[in-house]
Backbone:
């Protein structure tokens, strides 16, 4: 007989574990994470009818007040910290089965508040990330970038939209880990650790895979204007510029071009120089590869499966078995069941 795991969870609000009464009323917990998006949590509590006749602690705003910090831990046998964030909303249902839903996000959601119109002068993208992270009460773990831009304009954009734009431009991704804003290049090319090997029919309950031909980006031409030299800047990225084929012999564009090539041309009015145009073209080409092969797997709950890691999937045929990049996870627990749904992508075959 295989090992038997007992799902467990912990919830702390304002730095303290919730009361036993509240803990006993928990119906389900869901934590959904995705690269470039704030991590979201949803806690559903059932409320016995007799509690509705008294002061129901389940809607005590002193405990579940929007803005209050929340730490969620899940696990099999031992609960490990999965995320920390803050409450942003309550949904309360008064009916035959009263419930309250407590929803919130990690601190990336703070970047969405309001818009700004301002400029950054003589700054690298990694330096701008550090500035904006500090404004949101976060520290920054930003992989160093090298290009110094004389002038970058944030035009009536939220900090979130602005940083996503900067990340997309150079092939970087955004995530938050506790109080740290992560700004880094995609890790699709990394080898998966031995811990992250899943085999269909053994420890992988199900896996759905989709392969689609790519219809744009086999060749990416970026055009801009060099103000100092007063001449056009042009750079092209092709299949040879794929960051990784993830163990395959062909990238998604090499595979798809057997049907028809899909070149695109992009005009950027803020290209600094030829090197900047090269970086943009490569980033766009690699971004288009993300849609080539995607998959969704169901696994016994494991908080160590998280966006931004590579995993190895076996037992799905020689063509498709191999390394995949996790870009989204859903960890859910209810009535003693703990499951992890993970979404992956693969850039080559």
Residues:
């Amino acid at each position: 007989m295989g090992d038997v795991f007992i799902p467990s969870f912990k919830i702390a609000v304002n730095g303290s574990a919730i009361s036993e009464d509240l803990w006993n009323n928990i119906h389900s917990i869901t934590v959904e994470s995705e690269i470039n998006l704030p991590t979201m949590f949803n806690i559903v509590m059932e409320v016995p009818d007799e509690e509705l006749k008294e002061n129901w602690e389940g809607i005590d705003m002193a405990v579940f007040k929007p803005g209050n910090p929340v730490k969620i831990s899940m696990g099999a046998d031992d609960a490990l910290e999965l995320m920390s964030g803050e409450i942003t909303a309550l949904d309360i249902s008064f009916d035959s089965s009263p419930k309250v839903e407590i929803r919130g996000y990690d601190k990336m959601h703070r970047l969405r508040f309001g818009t700004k119109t301002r400029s950054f002068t003589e700054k690298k993208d990694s330096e701008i990330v550090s500035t904006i992270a500090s404004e949101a009460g976060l520290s920054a773990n930003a992989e160093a970038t090298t290009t110094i831009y004389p002038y970058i304009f944030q035009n009536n954009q939220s900090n979130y939209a602005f940083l996503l734009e900067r990340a997309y431009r150079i092939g970087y991704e955004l995530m938050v880990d506790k109080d740290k804003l992560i700004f880094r290049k995609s890790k699709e090319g990394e080898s998966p650790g031995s811990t992250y090997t899943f085999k269909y029919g053994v420890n992988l309950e199900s896996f759905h895979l989709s392969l689609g031909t790519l219809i744009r980006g086999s060749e990416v031409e970026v055009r801009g204007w060099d103000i100092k030299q007063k001449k056009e800047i042009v750079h092209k990225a092709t299949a040879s510029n794929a960051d990784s084929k993830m163990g395959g012999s062909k990238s998604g564009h090499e595979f798809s071009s057997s049907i028809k090539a899909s070149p695109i041309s992009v005009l950027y009015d803020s290209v600094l120089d030829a090197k900047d145009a090269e970086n943009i073209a490569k980033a766009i080409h690699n971004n288009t590869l993300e849609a080539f092969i995607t998959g969704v797997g169901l696994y016994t709950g494991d908080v160590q499966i998280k966006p931004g890691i590579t995993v190895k999937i076996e037992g799905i045929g020689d063509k498709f078995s191999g390394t995949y990049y996790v870009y989204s996870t859903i960890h859910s627990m209810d009535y003693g069941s703990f499951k992890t749904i993970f979404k992956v992508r693969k850039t080559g075959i």
